Amino acid sequence: MTTLLLDKEAQPVDVQGRVDLVLSPSLYWFRSEALPVKTVFQARKLAPSVFDAIVPEGVYSYHVLKRDDTFWLFAYNEEQIIDTIARSGIRPTDVRHLYFAQTECAALETPLRLGGTRILSSVDGVVTELPARYAADAEDARHFFETHARKGPAVGITLYHSALLDKKQFKRLSIVAAVFALLYGIEYFTARAHLASVLEEQAKIADTYRLPQTSFERNGLISALEKKQKRQTRLRETAKALFDLPADTENHLERLTLTPRNLTVSAVFKEPAKAEAFKKALMRIGTISSDKRKGDTLYLEVAYE
Fold first, then answer.
1. pTM for the whole structure
2. Total domain count for the chain?
3. Does 181 map to a domain?
4. CB under 8 Å to 278, separation ≥6 — which residues?
């Protein structure tokens, strides 16, 4: 069975028969997280929030694996993968399985050569692409995947299975579509008979829960919720930036108050140089509106709206 690495910058390849594809890190986002859940099913529900501030806007699917006390979480765009397969000259119907490079190369000891300028390497257990100059020696990627068994499991991509259909599959799909069209027509006329009762029930629900009756009121409610969501998102981004600030046992936060518009913080810095570095880091979050120092303790207020 031929096995190839599928990269975002795919080049046309000539393969015969069925093929397995290993997705390079350029085609997915990966996080290893210790989540407050026990099962993969529960972790998959949390996956969108884990990647919320990481991935670009788009429609993503999520894949979750349990690894000891942590979960491996993957986010990937199915349309992007299908497009990459098409640009590589491989027919989707010839692809048997798809795998993540993370599951296949996490224990990689020698980097894999992808071309003249890039390598695939495992850095602290996370598989990533790097410039070739970072490796003194590298093994050919195709030879590696051809000589090593897959560790999997395979990636499930719903859109892939319907990307291209042969004639037999198309004929079967046409028959199924005709049956569903007939069933839909029957259901449509049945639904019309119950429309009046549904509308009556809808009015009762709106009255019971005091829902807005006009589109103007509903749009106002939606707008208010969207503004609240944006404020919460900005607050979360600010908190993340703050938690990334440098600190150690002798230079640490004592108190922190965080609001949607500003934060107040007191921190101990026995070294003036580190105190200045801390203040410069805070200036990347917002504007320092208050700066006081008592002994080793620094009192700051930062406005970011």
1. 0.51
2. 3
3. yes
4. 245, 246, 251, 267, 269, 298
